[in-house]
Amino acid sequence: MGKDVIIACDFNSKAEVIAFLEKFKDEKPFVKIGMELFYAEGPDIVRTIKGMGHKIFLDLKLHDIPNTMKKAMAVLSGLDVDMCNVHAAGTKGMMQAALEGLTRADGSRPLLIAVTQLTSTDQETMELWIDKPIDETVMHYAKNTMEAGLDGVVCSPLEAGKVHAVCGEKFLTITPGVRFADGDVGDQKRVTTPAKAKELGSDYIVVGRPITQAADPVAAYRRCVEEFVG
Ligand code: C5P
User: Fold this and answer.
1) What is the 8-class DSSP label of residue 127?
2) 20 to 30 A Cα–Cα from 35, which one of 8, 77, 81, 125?
C-alpha cells in the first residue's frame, strides 16, 4: 500500500467542493468526504466526485448494532467508495459485521478503518467512564480493530509508530493533525508536518485547511505530496 495524501474536503455544498476540485488539472487527489457534505448533498456527491476520477474516503464514523451496520456498509460498498470507517467502540462483533457488509460478491471491498478514541476527548472527560490511561484505551481499540480483520485506524501521527509496533507494519495508520512548519495550527493541538508524519510511519495523512484554505491549493497539495510521499 503506497503512502498518499488525502484532502479533507470540509465544504458544505456541492458547488464549493466541485469548484475546489476543478482547480486540480494534472492530478486527482484522494478526497475525504465527511458528515457535513454527505448529509447536505446525499450519496450523489460521492458518485459525482468518483465520476471526476478521485478516490474517496467516506468519513461517516458509523456506530450501531451489527445487523444495521452490515446493511449500511453494503450500501456504502455499492457506492464504490475506496475507504470508509466505523467507531472501534462498537466492538469487534460490530466491526466484523461491517466487514461482511462491505465485501462484494466478487470478494473485493473498500478499505475499512476504525476511529479509536476521538481526539476531542481526554482523560478528564469523566462522563466517558474511562478508568484506564487514554493511550492504553487507544491501543486496546487498535488491537481489537486488527483482530476484527479491519485494515487500520485513524490516529495521530505521534501514535503511528506505536500502532505499527502492536498491530504490524501492514496495519494502516490514517493520520490527521498535519500542518506545514510555517503554517497556521488553527484548532488542532498536537500537529506534525507532512515530512515528520512520514518519518513517524503514517500511511496516509489527512490534510484539510492547509490545502483548502491556501492561496494556491494545488501548490499546497503538491508540497504535501513532495514532503510526505517524496
Ligand atoms: O483542516 P484540518 O487539516 O484540521 O482537517 C483535518 C480533518 O481530519 C478534518 O476533516 C477533521 O474532522 C478530521 N479529523 C481530525 N482528527 C481526528 C479525526 C478526524 O482532525 N481525530
Assistant:
1) G
2) 125
